[in-house]
Amino acid sequence: MSMPLINEAAPAFSANTTHGPRSLADYKGKWLILFSHPADFTPVCTTEFIGFAKRAELFKSMNCELLGLSIDSIYSHLAWMQSIQNNFGVEIPFPIIDDIKMEVAQAYGMIHPGAADTQAVRATFFIDPEGKLRAMVYYPMSNGRSIEEFVRLLQAMQTSDAHKIATPEGWTPGCDVIVPPPKTPEAIAKRKGEGYAMKDWYFSTKSL
Asked: Which superfamily, per CATH, for 164-206?
């Protein structure tokens, strides 16, 4: 099984979706969250799709598109989307890839040994506007993902890109950020006078 690598180009793909043909190139200039689910008409996946749908506008405001995938047909996807709308009152606004041949799932390492041959694991991939894979998150079949955490992670990565900083555990907008540590003895000596909140030479924070 091939696995994509963080900070390298995301595997290119072209696929049919519930919104027509889509390719990775279509998303250049935007962030993309590509996420797989084991199968249509499964309860955990249903809750995740509802969660993504409810935050789709928030993601869009962050220049981020959503793209789902499972190894099911377009017709299965459409019927499941209709079921979600009928039973939960939620419209799924983003495309879902028809990956019957498992081409996208295999390119992204979504098929894991021990899982059913025709099921993709709960994998989530963050691809930046340049087409680079920036984060991968895998969940077990039995447990649903936290969409709020994906919002937070996207906010953190966008903030790091914009300000050339890192973010601490659980960071949310408005919290202090981590300044890159100095890399030379001279830079260490200067760090105390740079105005940061400093715990030690390697750990300094600031507000944005």
From this structure: Antioxidant, Horf6; Chain A, domain2 (3.30.1020.10)
Whole-angstrom Cα distance, residue 23 to residue 189?
50
Sort 5 into a burial class: Cβ within 10 Å, 0-12 / 13-18 / 19+: exposed
Query: What residue segments make up the domains of the chain, in order of their start?
Result: 14-144, 164-206
* Beta strands at 31-36 and 64-70: parallel, antiparallel or unpaired: parallel
Annotated binding-site residue? 122: yes
Please tell me the CATH superfamily of domain 14-144, with its number.
Glutaredoxin (3.40.30.10)
Q: Crossing angle, helix 43-54 and helix 74-88, to 10 degrees?
A: 70
Query: Residues 5-17: pLDDT tens digits?
Result: 999 999 999 999 9
Active site residues: 45
Is the distance from CB of 127 to CB of 23 less than 8 angstroms? no
**Per-residue pLDDT reduced to its tens digit, 151-190:** 999 999 999 999 999 999 999 999 999 999 999 999 999 9
Total-model pTM: 0.93
